[in-house]
Design brief:
Layout: H1 4-25, H2 29-47, H3 60-77, H4 83-103, H5 116-119
Helix pairs in contact: 2-3, 2-4, 3-4
Amino acid sequence: MSDATPSNASAAETTDFDTMTRDIAEVPAVEVIVTVAVNLMSAAAVKLGLTEEGDRYKDLDEARKLIQALAGLLDASATEISSFHAAPLRDGLKSLQLAFREASIVPDEPGQGPGEKYTGPVYG
């Protein structure tokens, strides 16, 4: 075995990491926040069974966690992102909260559902 192979692989990994770091440094914080929020929304929709596969990936416990995280992110970043970005994200969050309430066999009391400590009660 040659010692050259591991060092070359290590150099390639370092170069890729440096490139990724430079790329992320050029992205505005608002875009990062919105991207994370959209990813949380998408994951929650899948866990709620709202995709074409329906119940195949449905897991309300996982959906609850994702919706809670999304609500916390939106609450924490409300003053950092403009209403242009925040309004559609809040609408999406409310839709997910309503879908969660409808999917639950025993719905949470108003104000106790996922993310409702940040958004207030959601009525369906």
